[in-house]
Structure formats: structure tokens, C-alpha cells
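Researcher: Please generate the 3D structure of the following complex. Treat every line as part of one assembly.
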Amino acid sequence: EDQVTQSPEALRLQEGESSSLNCSYTVSGLRGLFWYRQDPGKGPEFLFTLYSAGEEKEKERLKATLTKKESFLHITAPKPEDSATYLCAVQAFGRGSTLGRLYFGRGTQLTVWP
Amino acid sequence: DGGITQSPKYLFRKEGQNVTLSCEQNLNHDAMYWYRQDPGQGLRLIYYSQIVNDFQKGDIAEGYSVSREKKESFPLTVTSAQKNPTAFYLCASSTDRERAQYFGPGTRLLVL
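Model: Done. Output below.
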């Protein structure tokens, strides 16, 4: 069964303290891995798509990387406005109607304090 | 501006009542999805639709129903058979080419 596990569940950082969030996955053929940011009471906001091992994507203080078994979301010199829940999702190669659906992890709740 | 809209933002359901959540997109996306989010849990897929007039059950479809009569619209009905409907409901859409799903702002359903 396909699974996505995110760690840690919660992370508290001081402003400027860099760290990484982990997303490990087990799927039978990765079609894509997706990172989202979700603020309280809001819908998830799309950040990155990664398609193959070795790929990296960057956006401001965020950098996402991908290996064959996991992805990391690196946060460099975070600011309080980076506080949010970060969700990871994977899409597997499938057939027919299953193609396209995402499997989500439970998320990492990041708090950055000044 | 292109995007996904969900309404209402808050919805209150009385016991035994069916309620319908609206989801509209003007992104020209073929696929649309409904998720349920509960505190401490990941997003769980309720129903999804790859094309008009076709949809599939997700992992927790019991007590819910959908329709896809237009490409832009994918309403979700929470029926009286859903015994624990209190949750945050999220609608999303995607294209096969881009693959990422884009989400609406969500509807919070509460039971009176």
C-alpha cells in the first residue's frame, strides 16, 4: 500500500535557525512529489513539484530535494511568516481512474519565533 | 483571476439534513477532487472526477455524493448517512500535464 510519512510532526525554530522537514514515501512508481504550505483555516498553497531523484527546486527561503525514498524541504534563515503546516503528497503511476490522485502525509507544523 | 472558489465558508447542518458544498473553478482543469481534513490527520480523499459526467469514490466516500455535470463545477453533498460530518472540506483541481492540484479556500462544516 502506498504511504507517505512526514517528520517531525511539529518543529519550533528561532528566526534565522535553518532546518529541514522530511517526507518519506513508499509508492510503486513515483509520478511526482508535491509540497504544499497550509495556513490555519486556509486551503493548501502549492509550492513545488519534483519528478525524479536528484531534482531540486527553490523558492525564496525554501528548497525541496528528492531521492528515491524521501524528499526534504530545507528552510534557510526562516522568518516568523514562514510559520505554517507543510504538507507532502505523492502521485504514483497508475491505470485508468486512479491516475492523478495524490496521497498526502499528515504534515509538519512549523513555528518560527522571533 | 483564475482560481477555485468554495462556498459557503461556514456551513451548519442539522441532524438528518443533507447539505451541499459548492466548488467552482475557472482554470479549465479537467480533474476535480474533494478532500476532508480533520485535526491531526492528513487530507483524505472523498471523491474525484477526471472528466465531466464521470467520478470515482475515494477512500471515505460513504455518506457523501457528488455530481459533475459541468467542467467548472463539482458539488459535494453531505448526506444524513454521514454520522460524523464535522470537518474542513477542501476542493481541488488539476490538469494531467501539470499534475499538481490547486486548492480552494475550504468550507468548514459544523453540526448543530
